[in-house]
Amino acid sequence: MDVSSLLDGLNDKQREAVGAPLSNMLVLAGAGSGKTRVLTHRIAWLMQVEQQSPYSILAVTFTNKAAAEMRERVEKVVGTNMGRMWIGTFHGLAHRLLRTHYQDANLPQSFQIIDSDDQLRLLKRILKSLNLDEKQYPPRQAQGYINGKKDQGLRPKHIDAGSFPIEQNLLNIYKIYQESCDRAGLVDFAEILLRAHELWLNKPHLLTHYQERFRHILVDEFQDTNAIQYAWIRVLAGKTANVMIVGDDDQSIYGWRGAQIENLHRFLKDFSEAKTIRLEQNYRSTANILNASNSVIANNPDRLGKELWTEDKDGEPISVYCAFNEMDEAKFIVSRISEWHEKGGSLSECAILYRSNAQSRVLEEAFLHKGLAYRIYGGLRFFERQEIKDAMGYMRLINNKDDDAAFERVVNTPARGIGDRTLDIVRSTARQHELTLWQACVRLVEEKVLAGRAANAINGFMELIISMRTDTADMVLYTMTDNVIDRSGLRTMYEAEKGEKAQARIENLNELVTAARSFEMPEELEDIGELNAFLSHAALEAGEGQADAFTDAVQLMTLHSAKGLEFPMVFMAGVEEGLFPSKMALDEGDRLDEERRLCYVGMTRAMQKLYISYAESRRIYGREDYASPSRFINEIPEKFVEQIRIRAQVKPSISKRFPARPATVTTKPNGFNDTGYRVGSKVKHFKFGEGKVINFEGSGEKGRVQVEFVDFGIKWLLVSLAKLERC
Ligand code: ATP
Ligand code: MG
């Protein structure tokens, strides 16, 4: 491919970035301005024009999906297979490094990655062994503490807990947790990055090797790097590499996980003569969508400030739908998608974005009901499902008996008579003698500390694992997987459970065999064996390459996982105060800006049509909430919006422009309607206190009354749920 075609399809600013002389560079620009496109073309440019070897390039993206897309795009531009080129996520690349240099990283060759669920289980066990009350020391707090410290590059020895008992205890938990991970050969997500960074610091010969190799480092979505990721890049780059970062301060949405927008400023200071290029033309969205998004983000303080414009036409207005409840919302969304589909649109062009994973269930039901295919990214992904983790737990133990997280998971699943008391003895022995759980069992059995049924049960379990290990040693991966599912008793256990859920679990287990069958060994992991590679793949890429990736399906995902993507039609669901912005963000003032950036990310995913919906009452997390529309909706200028239902004349309590409900009243002659209330009735609500009925609509199950509460303003309530008392 010649030079000019590499610059085809780029505007002047983009060309300037793609064709810049070798140097450090920051491309700072808003959503949809072609940052990722520039990064991809730059890689091609380096190879084709600057004659740089693919071997000298390292590119970091935010998700595995984005990495695969980038590899594909580069391959398309360059026209050859990029095979072993280092394109991946921070975690993926750091993992690759640790696998290659496990000895230098002080890890056993069979080390395994644990996800946050496994990490939490381990922590629970440690809290118990320390006799710390879970109420006073919630395991999640300890988890946040440990991951937070690791993200800052801190080991226990670097931390001074001063004289604060809580911090001292957390530090102690961190220490013990790390020791047991090290014994068991387990590495959590934060640890992957920390160790990869330590590898640079502790092994200068390795650092020099990689510094000489990677002359070009490119990072997408730079605004979401955390301290350790930044440090890793900075050390690797040294004084000689050319680093190109692209990012958008308005799309920084992982502050809660330690990402630091300041890294953008830091970069300009740390990397000499870095040139800044700004892109200002948006190629993704219609003018209405772009301008509405710009208006929302304009409410944030301390922005670096970027102007975005588009040549695109205004397009359709943004449709805002006020639903009765979450079911109504789901129905609405599904019906719009169904219409689109009937008119010939493809399902995969539609995305539903939500703030919380828990929102997906109702949407899933609506899709099932309508018979439309959907796919969920994030949330409970395939490799995170209970039955899959059970089966993988056995495979992990076969791979490495000392894997404590796997041991905990499957020792008594299916139930084999190993009680909590026995396990407590195993755990405390492990802790006391600094052993893994497996080693503790061996010792307890040898020393005959355990007797009778307990000893038999533990022995039986250990024999099972050992014999599975021997028997499957020569099998190919998928036969082994199938064998493990049978021999472990998992299949029988779920078969005995019956019901749809159990059936789905068996189907998933079968799917795991399929996944094992289609697993392709990555070239760079050839040395570690198929089983080990498969287990790492499952832990790192959970769900991103789902089995049904080729079916045309609606895409459901959290707003966070939508970053960097684009879809012709986007629905943002549950845009309500308390859900989005989330309650937590409302309680902690500084988090509100990040929620607004998340809203900006969500809106700017849409190319042609954006729907925003909210529900007045919502059952979520097992309770019923009444909410008002999100402030973000009110931040969109009216001229870009179309309300799908005409609102009532009633003055809203919080919202300015999107009051509670339209008045479509069906009144009976006596002034009562089917709700059994009349205007003026005095009522009392368990949460909102006293109020007066001012309106009503619907009947039966769907009957609703509008009440003006003394302390809580005006609300619409479902009569069947609100349990109003008359007074
Ligand atoms: P985000 O901030 O959401 O990650 P981005 O800045 O990375 O967005 P891209 O995803 O690279 O933006 O580009 C957005 C869309 O615009 C893509 O569909 C891309 O192909 C298209 N695009 C980018 N530059 C141009 C151009 N010069 N001409 C036509 N289309 C373009
Ligand atoms: Mg991008």
CATH architecture call of the largest domain:
3-Layer(aba) Sandwich
Radius of gyration: 28 Å
- The count of helical stretches stands at 28
- End-to-end Cα distance, whole Å, is 81 Å
Going by helix content, strand content and strand pairing, the class is: alpha/beta
CATH hierarchy class name of the largest domain = Alpha Beta
What fold name stands as the CATH topology of the largest domain?
Rossmann fold
Quantity of strands, as a count: 21
Largest sheet: 8 strands, mixed
> What proportion of the residues is helical, as a percent range?
40-55%
What do these coordinates show?
- It is a single chain.
- With 727 residues, the protein is α/β, with parallel strands linked by helices.
- It folds into five domains: 3-103 and 193-281, Rossmann fold; 112-184, Arc Repressor Mutant, subunit A (Orthogonal Bundle); 318-381 and 546-644, P-loop containing nucleotide triphosphate hydrolases (Rossmann fold), CATH 3.40.50; 385-538, PCRA, domain 4, CATH 1.10.486.10; 681-726.
- It is built from 28 helices and 21 strands.
- Helix 4 (64-78) links the parallel strand 2 (57-61) and strand 3.
- Helix 9 (189-202) packs parallel to helix 11 and helix 13 runs antiparallel to helix 26.
- The chain is globular, with a radius of gyration of 28 Å.
- Adenosine-5'-triphosphate is lined by residues 9-11, 14, 29, 31-37, 248, 251, 283-284, 564, 566, 604.
- It catalyses: Couples ATP hydrolysis with the unwinding of duplex DNA by translocating in the 3'-5' direction; ATP + H2O = ADP + phosphate + H(+).
